[in-house]
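Ligand-bound model needed. fe (ii) ion.
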Amino acid sequence: MDRIQLISLLLKKGLLVSPETLEEIEKNFDEDIFSGFSSEEIEKSLVFQFNKHNLNEKKEDTKFSVEIIKSYSFEPKKREVSDFVNYFKARYNQIKEILHGRPELQNVISINRGLSKKKNDRVSIIGMISDKRITKNGNILLTLEDPTGQINVLITKNKSLSNLFDEIVFDEIVGVSGVVGDKILFADSLYFPELPLSKEFKKINDEVYAAFIGDIHIGSKMFLEEDFKKFIEWINCNYGNQNQKEVAKKTKYLFIVGDLVDGIGIYPEQDKELNIKDITKQYDLCAYYISQIRKDIKIIICPGNHDALRLSEPQPVLDKVFAKLLWDIPNVMMVSNPSLINIHKTESFPGFDVLLYHGYSFDYYISNVDTIRKGGGYDRADLIMKFLLNKRHLAPSHSSTLYLPLEYDPLVIDKIPDFFVSGHLHKSSISSYNNISLICSSCWQSKTLFQEKMGHHPEPSRVPIINLKTRAMVLMNFGD
Ligand SMILES: [Fe+2]
Ligand SMILES: [Fe+2]
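Prediction:
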């Protein structure tokens, strides 16, 4: 039976057949087996094969699920001082709840009550760091605040805690234990919220991959179009060696972590470095590339600081007018920055939780935390990501990012993810910390004058790829 006969038989049964399904049926159609069968029986068998294939296809598709757990869409409104007070209260309570989980901080009292305790009484308190300094004698003096008051906390230099000075950042919320002095607490223990050690290392049985890109910066003269085209070719299984093509075939999730376009007026004299000076056209070209990606890949997009949105976090989904063509792509899913996504959930597997954060706050911690700056700064996204995970906050210091004062702090890392994914630094990094995969995407833009001045050394055209079966990560290089 030839192809035309097959199609017409199926059509007679009211079944529209896709080229893929047809190929599958043809492969399984053994003329000899059917010899001697009536045409009605052959039809029945074809219908059975058609249904079997289609059902399999559907079953497979539900395996590649994407569920949005947290994506924010708050509109900015005129804010009063009280909004900021409430916002810090909310943050305090959210982090306090995390700190309460530590056995050492079960019996925490308020700062006000701590101040009224007798000299030499042992107390534990939880407060926000409103000041930190080194005294003349080389001790650490912190000022901690909670909704009831504030207290000075002294950590003497002989204690192992004195190394912590650099690790403590303004406005973060910590726990301390020690003995009461005269309007002061002499602390011997300091607790960051940190991560529980019991995080499960989730894996799946099938070999499926997720890829991570970001900082495409379309519109910039430095956009590395040829490298980006190679990436699109790869994900469509047309580029790379046999092994790389196999990985592409099994890649089912693609995350794009912000800065899709270069934007307009983002940094001084940016227009000299733009070849597309219209924001909609920048997004149109971006959509042109993204629309070429295989439709069986789920694409999850969050914005970054170069996208045409307010900078205050949480940044909402990409603009529906400027980025209309991206919104029109059927396999694209838009989420806010930050956001929490669950992928690959099945009846027997809870899925992987992916925390997406572009990384606008990272610059602050590179300049203000010695261990990060001296440890490699812009080249070491992993150090910043670990640091923030231990603070359980994406931007603990008030001035490290712009934010909306809400009744709930969406930058608190209350649910511990399986993957923490960021971008912004234009240099990729893959590592693992307490069973959390830390992934920073690279970029598709060569060094700008601004980055030159700032002393950055971007490493473009790299793509982190994770194997969900083994959690092994690799970097694929589409550049030189
Ligand atoms: Fe960027
Ligand atoms: Fe950025």
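Residues 53-60 have pLDDT under 50 and may be disordered.
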